[in-house]
Design a protein that fits this description.
Number of domains: 1
Distance between the termini: 46 Å
Radius of gyration: 20 Å
Low-confidence stretches: 1-8
Helix content: over 70%
CATH architecture: Up-down Bundle
Shape: globular
Largest sheet: none
């Protein structure tokens, strides 16, 4: 009997009903610890780069290198993983991530770190993430026996990631001030095995493997997304939001140090404020994210992003900046997660890995391009002006998209 039909399922509130599935519970717990460690590492790497070089351009480059592989190889990675055992692949990737964190910890502790080394580590992380992100997403469906609970599982997974995003950066800021960046990287190396242990313990129902060459599988997924008008529109929205709104992340060290005269703790507050807003967005979706309303959430989130970027540009004090970042994190997550829910719920099961990979490629790939561009613009005109420019461009893009949709 499926655990979705057991009496235990009825004890779970509707907002967290996917946790009634034991395999998802195990995966959920391991994912939480692992993701917390990943955020600690991301903040520590950005702060290490900025305090060593003081370069906004390097910050943009790090963002680009850590995310661009998802745009360049992510779609093909989706086709490739649809032909293989996803659980086994994710276990291998987790092992490599543990080794990378240990290398970072030792190199930083020994003082072997410089700009090129940090850039190389960011690129390696980006390559691994191009495989890990679609693998994590695609496996969720195998840990939830009832397909009706998949949207809730996706929301809970996003909630977990954003809870880690809320807790991780302040934790990293405090740990950097107390023990240095090497301690953060060592903590991440300890956190990653949590997901590894969960993957070794769960026994999800494996989905069907795609047949044919990777190129054929890729073309099949591309044809589906091109022919589905709603899918095309959702992916355009993903591109705009993440190119223009998610670029804020590359500029947070500049805001913390150059604009608000703060240290790593202030950086943690800024990142945590955006994470808090993102976490609230996942709560909203968990409670009210019925499929017929998701498109409204997607549009509202994009509009809030534009408002928050302009507010962050105008914020002259740290409390106002924290408020604007909270709204920005809320808007980005509301738009992205509701889009992901629509795409995964509508995709045929045998195409889900490829659809997820395309979504993630657009999501993080264009954030990489936006972060790189933001770093270059900020080096000339400053971080606040860069955010204002991004906000204005997003307003213009949303107006064009609205006009196209009305014309049908």
């Amino acid at each position: 009997m499926s655990d979705s039909s057991s009496p235990h399922r009825k004890r779970w509130p509707a907002a967290v009903r996917a946790l009634a599935h034991r395999n998802f519970q195990i995966y959920f717990a391991g994912q939480g610890v692992s993701t917390l460690g990943k955020w600690v590492q991301q903040v520590a790497l950005a702060w290490l780069a900025y305090h060593l070089t003081g370069s906004a351009v390097l910050l943009g480059l790090i963002t680009f290198l850590s995310l661009a592989p998802q745009l360049l190889i992510g779609p093909l990675a989706g086709a490739w993983i649809d032909r293989h055992d996803k659980r086994r692949l994710l276990i291998i990737v987790q092992l490599i991530l543990i080794v990378q964190s240990l290398v970072l910890a030792v190199a930083t502790w020994r003082g072997w770190v410089d700009g090129p080394f940090i850039a190389a580590m960011a690129l390696l992380f980006g390559l691994l993430n191009a495989l890990e992100a679609p693998l994590r997403q695609a496996l969720i469906g195998s840990f939830v026996d009832d397909p009706a609970d998949l949207p809730n599982a996706l929301v809970l997974n996003a909630m977990l990631i954003n809870a880690a995003r809320f807790v991780g950066p302040p934790l990293a800021g405090g740990l950097i001030a107390l023990a240095g960046e090497a301690a953060c990287f060592a903590l991440t190396a300890v956190a990653f095995p949590a997901l590894l242990g969960g993957l070794l313990k769960v026994r999800g129902t494996a989905g069907p493997k795609a047949s044919g060459s990777t190129t054929q599988v890729f073309r099949e997924g591309l044809a589906y997304m091109w022919q589905a008008r709603n899918v095309r529109q959702l992916l355009v929205n993903v591109i705009m939001v993440n190119l223009l709104a998610s670029c804020y992340a590359a500029l947070l060290p500049v805001l913390a140090r150059a604009v608000f005269a703060g240290d790593a703790r202030v950086l943690g507050w800024l990142w945590g404020a955006a994470g808090a807003g993102a976490f609230v967005a996942t709560l909203v979706l968990a409670v009210g994210g019925a499929l017929p309303r998701l498109r409204q959430f997607t549009d509202a989130g994009a509009l809030l992003c534009a408002v928050a970027l302009v507010g962050l540009w105008m914020a002259g004090a740290l409390p106002l900046a924290l408020l604007a970042l909270g709204v920005l994190g809320f808007g980005i997550t509301l738009s992205n997660v509701s889009t992901n829910m629509q795409l995964q719920s509508g995709a045929p099961s045998h195409l889900r890995g490829r659809v997820i990979a395309f979504y993630i490629a657009m999501r993080f790939g264009f954030e990489a391009l936006g972060g790189m561009a933001a770093g270059l613009i900020a080096a000339r005109w400053g971080a606040p002006a860069t955010l204002g420019i991004a906000g204005g461009a997003l307003v213009a893009g949303l107006l064009v998209q609205y006009g196209v949709r009305r014309r049908g």
